[in-house]
Design brief:
The protein is of the alpha+beta class. It folds into 3 domains: about 55 residues, Ubiquitin-like (UB roll) (Roll), CATH 3.10.20.30; about 150 residues, 2-Layer Sandwich (Threonyl-tRNA Synthetase, Chain A, domain 2), CATH 3.30.980; about 325 residues, Rossmann fold (3-Layer(aba) Sandwich), CATH 3.40.50.300. About 40% of the residues lie in helices and about 20% in strands. The longest helix has 25 residues. The two termini are about 45 Å apart.
Length: about 550
């Protein structure tokens, strides 16, 4: 017997694939399925006693699989039209994925119509996209034939005797995760020329968000990419090589210096603009706290007296916290802050008055006042950091001429290989998992269960304001996942296979498998942004 979780039915076990059962039970449009709480290829076999759950199109894993299916078909179309070129997956822009040629050749607008026709033809043929397991030697032969240099470098650095690849139209693709079994599953896609490359979006409904260019972020991506290419550390394979060759000390020093140079540059701009209020924002686990501390040091070197103000101390009393749509207190909302008092105190400080700054008591859920009077001297400069740092409502009374706004994000220039990027969201999630356990005594279930809500709130409270920033800083470190790996694996090593977050944990573990672990934390400088997440760890 097997159990179909969706409709709580059991049926006699037969020698079928999950896809066969999907057709039998009315889930023919399902692109992803769970077998015993783990994501698997939907063409996988089923064993007696298995639990099968089909995920609908709104599920995050279904959306991810659909995007990877779109990427595979786009890669295939480009292989057909440009057999000597290599298309590389770069980064996301909203709901779109940006891709460009590896050799920096331009993708011309006039070529896209033919690419669309090729993709449409591949979809109409309903070609099989087969997940195949090949030996290590076979993989190297395939990578050489297809021109996948970075995939070869990665495999050489790993102890893998077998590799899973996807085969379609006589071409092979190394896509991390899962792809639809047939090309027909890509019903709707949007392809836009974005010099020098293209952006791709996919949809199960036919509805697409408007493509919105993020100029400031794009410039940071380009700048970081040039830096990683210069040091040959843009891909996990090349990074693993340096760990194997024991060449990490220099790389860590250069990486940390690169981050410090970003801060130093911003400090100079703050002085030049004669700003008196620094606003720092960024999504969860982007490193805002460390950024504020290291910026304070740089400003102090330049003769300034930084005064940090925590937004958390301006929470409204817990009883007055606004509620979300589910009736829960919404601490992510900007209305969870006493904006009137916050703005009043900022103006008083900027006008040279003493201000008794509040302290929020998280036990009682109320704001308290002691004898914490503060005054801004002639060299004083206020630093405010938090998720609402760039929201105009936060500092509505302060003239813009007195402000300097900074957006911090772990932009993650490192890619697994030419076809698989590491999402900034996954990087931040791993940071948060370790920090929550190490410093906040939170369980993995607590962190992972609240993460979707935290991430969804970022689209309301953080991302819309990133273009308000005067400067954007990339807080990611090339080597950090190699450091975080041992922490994450230790946290999840005994996790119950029937647990609520087993599926997500297995997905993260599959990414970590590509990284060689760095066991010695002593290579991480004491002032590194990474210490914000691994600091004070005890075995």
């Amino acid at each position: 017997m097997i159990r179909i979780v969706n409709n709580n039915k059991t049926c006699n076990y037969e020698n079928k694939t999950i896809y066969d059962y999907a057709l039998d039970y009315g889930f023919e449009d399902s692109i992803v399925a769970l077998k015993n709480n783990k994501i698997v290829d939907i063409m996988s076999s089923v064993d007696d006693g298995d639990f099968i759950e089909f995920l609908d199109e709104s599920n995050v894993y279904s959306q991810d699989t659909l995007m990877k299916t779109g990427i595979l078909l786009l890669l295939l179309a480009f292989k057909i039209k440009f057999p000597k070129e290599q298309l590389v997956v770069e980064y996301t822009i909203g709901d779109y994925m940006y891709l460009e040629f590896e050799n920096n050749n331009e993708i011309h607008f006039k070529d896209l119509e033919e690419i669309r026709e090729l993709m449409d033809d591949l979809i109409s043929q309903n070609l099989r996209i087969e997940r195949v397991k090949v030996s290590r030697k076979e993989a190297f032969d395939i990578f050489e034939k297809e021109g996948y240099i970075q995939k070869s470098r990665l495999l050489k650095s790993l102890d893998k005797e077998e590799v899973y690849l996807y085969k379609c139209h006589e071409h092979y693709f190394g896509i991390e995760g899962f792809v639809a079994p047939f090309t027909r599953f890509l019903k709707h896609y949007k392809l836009i020329n974005y010099f020098p490359g293209v952006v791709l979006s996919v949809s199960s409904s036919g509805e697409f968000s408007k493509f919105k260019e993020e100029k400031a972020l794009a410039k940071i991506f380009v700048k970081s990419k040039k830096w990683t290419e210069m040091l040959d550390i843009g891909y996990v394979g090349s990074l693993n090589e340096k760990i194997i060759d024991d060449n990490m000390d220099f790389l860590v020093s250069v990486n940390e210096a690169y981050f410090e140079n970003q801060i130093s540059y911003i400090a100079d701009k703050i002085i030049y603009n004669n700003a008196r209020l620094i606003q720092i924002s960024g999504p969860s686990s982007s490193g805002k706290t460390t950024m504020a501390k290291r910026l304070s040091v740089q400003l102090a070197v330049r003769g300034k007296n930084p005064i940090p103000i925590s937004m958390d101390n301006y929470f409204v009393n817990r009883i007055d916290t606004p509620l979300d749509k589910d009736g829960n207190r919404d601490y992510e909302s900007i209305n969870a802050l006493d904006l009137k008092t916050f703005n009043k105190d900022l103006m008083s400080l900027l006008e040279g008055d003493y201000v008794n700054l509040p302290i929020y008591n998280f036990i009682t859920g109320e704001r308290e006042y002691g004898n914490t009077y503060t005054k801004l001297d002639k060299n004083g400069i206020i630093i405010v950091e938090g998720i609402h740092g760039l929201n105009p409502k936060l500092t509505s009374l302060v003239p813009d001429k007195d402000k300097y706004k900074i957006y911090v994000s772990a932009l993650t220039q490192l890619s697994i290989d030419c076809h698989n990027r590491i999402s900034t969201t996954d990087m931040r999630l791993m940071r948060r998992m370790v920090r929550d356990f190490v410093q906040r005594d939170k369980s993995i279930d607590d962190t992972l269960s609240e993460w979707p809500r935290v991430h969804a709130a970022e689209y309301i409270n953080v991302f819309p304001y990133q273009n308000e920033a005067d400067s954007i800083i990339d807080s990611s470190l090339i080597y950090e996942i190699n450091i975080l790996k041992k922490y994450v694996l230790k946290l999840v090593e005994n996790y119950d296979k029937k647990g609520l977050n087993f599926t997500e944990i297995e997905r993260l573990k599959s990414i970590l498998n590509y990284f060689i672990e760095i066991n010695d934390d002593s290579i991480v400088p004491k002032n590194s942004i990474l210490q914000e997440f691994i600091g004070d760890y005890n075995e």
